[in-house]
Design a protein that fits this description.
single chain, four-stranded antiparallel beta sheet, globular
């Protein structure tokens, strides 16, 4: 009998016990293994003890800047990060995405929304990436300019079989471009296509995300 896949291990980092503990309990009830930390020191201590599939990280911690921590997690550990923030300002959300966050969610939030976003991040970053097959029963896969891209996993396979992980915004942008071949997409149209309910994305943010995606398509992953 085949073994069941191991449950993803998630680290929730938030200094507010009334957020941290109920959220951990909720995720455990949906087949996740969850550890918690209340500050940056606890985050690094947990990372020395365990490997994680994703980190849910509060932006405002008593002993560390969540944005800087997000960048360090991305650069040192290549870990998917979902930012929790009480800040609704567009610039803060842009900053988080540019520093490597895979997604963000603004407090107060519904645990179901975070669960859905966490599952989406894990599908993109950790899902299997078999060869693309033009079969209705197979997962959707795009082939273009020597690249292969599967939306269900968020993995971009470049020539030479090098795999690149895309953030949630980069993945959404790439899918828009792939589903609108040979169509001019003015910046305003891109904003309309990529924006989710509650988002506030302006022109400069789109320019930055397109530039990041171009670098990854060119093989220069950050």
């Amino acid at each position: 009998m085949p073994l069941a896949p191991a449950a993803p291990r998630i680290l929730v980092v938030d200094d507010h016990r009334k957020i941290r503990q109920p959220l951990a309990a909720y995720l455990r009830g949906h087949q996740f293994v969850v550890d918690t930390a209340e500050d940056a020191a606890g985050l690094w201590a947990q990372l020395r003890l365990q490997s994680y599939q994703a980190v849910v990280l509060d932006v405002m911690l008593p002993d560390g800047d969540g944005f800087a921590l997000c960048q360090q997690l991305h650069q040192r550990h290549r870990l998917p990060v979902i930012l929790l923030t009480a800040r609704g300002e567009c610039e803060d959300r842009i900053r988080g995405l540019e520093l490597g966050a895979d997604d963000y969610i603004v407090k107060p939030f519904e645990p179901r929304e975070l669960l859905a976003r966490l599952r989406a991040v894990l599908r993109r970053r950790l899902g299997p990436a078999p060869a693309c097959v033009a079969d209705a029963k197979s997962p959707l896969c795009y082939r273009f300019a020597g690249h292969r891209y599967r939306p269900d996993s968020g993995l971009l396979e470049q020539p030479g079989a090098r795999r690149v992980h895309l953030t949630s915004t980069e993945a959404r942008l790439l899918e828009i471009f792939l589903t609108h071949p040979r169509q001019p997409l003015p910046r305003e149209r891109l904003v309309g296509l990529i924006t989710r309910p509650g988002d506030e994305i302006h022109d400069r943010a789109i320019d930055r995300q397109v530039s990041r995606l171009r670098r990854k398509l060119g093989g220069d992953e950050e």
